[in-house]
Each structure stands twice: as C-alpha cells, then as structure tokens.
Amino acid sequence: MMAHSEALLVLENFIAGKFVPCSSYIDSYNPSTGDVYCRVPDSGKEEVEAAVKAAKAAFPIWSSKSPLERSQILNKLADLIERDLEAFAQAESKDQGKTIMFARTVDIPRAVYNFRFFASSILHHTTECTEMASVGCVHYTSRAPVGVAGLISPWNLPLYLLTWKIAPAIACGNTVVAKPSEMTSVTAWMMCKLLEKAGVPHGVVNVVFGTGAKAGEALVCHPDVPLISFTGSTLTAQRITEKSAPHCKRLSLELGGKNPAIVFDDADLSQCIPTTLRSSFANQGEICLCTSRIFVQRGIYSEFLKRFVSEAKKWKVGNPSDPTVDVGALISKEHLEKVRSYVKKAQAEGARVLCGEGVDSLALPTGNQKGYFMLPTVIAEVKDESCCMQEEIFGPVTCVVAFDTEDEVIERANGVKYGLAATVWSSNVGRVHRVARRLQSGLVWTNCWLIRDLNLPFGGMKASGIGREGAKDSYEFFTEVKTITIKH
Ligand code: NAD
Question: Domain named Aldehyde dehydrogenase: which ranges (predicted)?
Fold first, then answer.
C-alpha cells in the first residue's frame, strides 16, 4: 500500500497559525483510480486539545474586532481562494472523485461566495428594542459571539460545506476548530495556507484532520467547545447529540434526505426532465438535496419514464478530470458497494432496473479501471416500503413510481423518516403552493432545483436535521442573545 510513499501528499494539522505534523496518519484514496495518494493526520484528543487551546486564546482579540474589520478579512480570504480557484477545483476533484466541471462551477465558487456572503451579511444585522413608557423602561437585545465553535463537515461537498460553517462562525466573532471529513481533507488544508495572507489572526481558524470516532468525538466532548455545527449522516448526528448532552451544547445538525420529486401531468417536461436528471445524478447523486424518489402522475408516467431513461443513458461516466464527463467516481469502494447493494435489493424485490447498474456496460479509461464508478441508474415499480424508497442511498440511483391524486402523492412523499428537500413540477400555481405547504420538507423547489438565496433558512425537518442555517439563522446560531432592560 505504501509503495508510492515518496509521491504521497502529506497533510498537517493547522493549529495556532502553524502547520503541525501528527504522530500517526490515515491513507486517503483517489476515488477515480483506487490509489492511495495522500496521508491525513489521524488526530485525537491531544491535537484537539491544542487546537481548542489556540482558539480560546484567540477569542478575546477576534471577538472584540468590529464587524467591518472581520468582514474585510473574510473578503480577502474569498479573493485568495478565487485567485487559486483552478488549483482548488483540481484538488477537490482528485480528492472526492467529483467531475472537474462540478468542482469548477459549483464547489469552489460557492466556497468563495460563502465568505463574501457572510462578509456582507454580518454588516446588516440589527437587534431588537421595545419601550415600556408606563414604567420608564426600554428593553433591547444584544448579541455576542459564543466562543470556540466546533465545525464538523462531510465528504460530498468538502470546501463548500466547511466554509458554509467557517464563514458565519468567524464573521460573528467566534474562533473555530474545524474537522473536515477524513476522506476529503485536502482543500481545507490548502485554505489554511491562505489564512495568514488574508489577515486571519493565528488561532482564529484551527483545523484538525482525522476520523469522526477519534478527532470528531474529541471535539464534540471537549468542555470548552460550547457549540457544534455538524453536517453529515443522521446516525452520526444521533451519536453527537448523545455525546454532547452532558455539556448541554448548542447543536446545529444538517443531515440526510430521501427527497421526492412530484411531477404532475401538467408539468413542462422539457424543463422537468433535464432538471430532474441533474437533481438525481449531479455530483454522482452525492448531494443531500438529490432527488431519489420520483412520483409521476399516471397519465404521463410512460412518456416521462421513456424520456427520462433515454436522457439518463446519455450521461457520460468516466475520468473526473475530463471536462466532458458528467459523472465522476463515488467516494469510496465501500460506498460504491453499498449503493450497488440497493440496486440488487430492488431487483430481488421485483422492481425493474431500466438503465445503469447491472443493465448497461460501463467502459472506463485504462487509468480508471480500479476507480469507484457507477452508471446513472433508474429503477421503476419499487414499492413505497422498500429500503430503496425509505433509506438514503446517496449515489446515482433514482426510483420512479406512478401516482394518481394530489392527496395520495403528498401522503406518500411524506411517508419517510426524512424531510430535507422536495421538488414539485406543475403549471398550476394554486396546486404548487398547496402541495409545497403540505410537504414535510425544509426546502421545496417548484419547477426548479438547487436555486438558493443564502439569506433564507436552509435545513431539514424530521430525521433531516435540527436548526437552520442562512444569513439570519446562522447569525442567531453563532451568537448568544441577551435582553437588557434600562430604567430611566
Ligand atoms: P458522516 O456522518 O459519516 O460524517 C460526517 C462528518 O462527521 C465527518 O467529518 C466524520 O468524520 C464525522 N464524524 C463521524 N463520526 C463522528 C462522531 N462519532 N463524532 C464526531 N464526528 C463524527 O457523513 P458522511 O458520510 O461524511 O456524509 C454523508 C452524509 O451527509 C449523508 O447522509 C448526507 O445526506 C449528509 N449531508 C447533509 C447535508 C445537509 O446540508 N443536510 C449536506 C451534505 C451531506
């Protein structure tokens, strides 16, 4: 496994403004070749302790800076990441398996925008004030940063989701200890190299790399970290909730989904089909907001299926660094096997696999034969109670089923434990509003997908999460409010 050790990229933790080696390391794979190409620190309690200490020490100075000073630093950091956009995109694609086009047009631009957005929004918050003239009092609220924020992020949109946490946390005046996914740590490490130049004081942003069980849990259990912002699976969130309970920590949990698309018979299929293909297969289906259950009204079911499958077959799977490729590699061998196993289970239950896994053959370039690739897969006639319709698959697999009435489809769409995102396709405005309001889902897109205004709340219901993030919501999460009464 270590035959190519001389060529390996070796990451170091970033603590108190310095890169610090670790005593042990984890192998990190290039998903498109199956080779180990990077070594990631296997941090534990000791490294987390040092990072929290640095963040605590930096807090008094950083929290006392004006929002404008912090905003200027965030903007500088955004400029520096943007300057290096291509290098970040290449690194993200290699580390995660995503296509270079997706990294170039979605991941890295959004990471840049996260810093710009919170650099701006932090300047515009106001607090509340009320007056009780009869007793000669005014009341007002004041908001202050909480302290050291623990930020834990997943592997699917590595820098995008990490910066979605770092930017608001530090804009509000907190200092942070971040732990990216052990499978995708490279772009976080690259960002650390830019912090000093951007003017981020030492200790304001600390990054410890390592596994969830060791580094993540040490952060969650640390008594000097009063707040944890976590994005990842529902299972891990349950563990984090348990572990942080003795400390009564403030938690923001952005979790998995089993997102429905509802296609009524008056939908504009020329818009719906390409968008639903994207919502099913973009980033290999590894986005928490991806569609994985498509409910199509019976009158257009056959036509939809025919057109959808024929278009899905056109998606090109292959080397992520080829700009003409639409689907890159899945994150790991284990994950690929897990996603494949769902297709097998569906077949065993009598569902029909219309294209992709097990049906079509996948020709890969010579250098990618050992990569973790899978064709976009469409399954029809899956029962609502099947695990394929109930569990998050998180890969390029989508299920298509027919429905008859509005009431029926709402009940079926809501019939899962998750409630993150939904799409509704119809040209009837009244119906679109009615259905959107009745869906148990933190986000509903009608006649579109993934168009976001970062000012508005983002987050899920039910097992998809607790709390919301966005301009005002992140501000409220990353600050502590106090009500002050003045008698005159
Ligand atoms: P995961 O839960 O396995 O890991 C997420 C992060 O938590 C990683 O950094 C991991 O090391 C860490 N972790 C694992 N165990 C931990 C523990 N015991 N204590 C502390 N930290 C721990 O999730 P993943 O497989 O990396 O990501 C995929 C999941 O993330 C999917 O379920 C997906 O839907 C979800 N997700 C949700 C959103 C959202 O905004 N709702 C966005 C992206 C991904």
Answer: 24-484
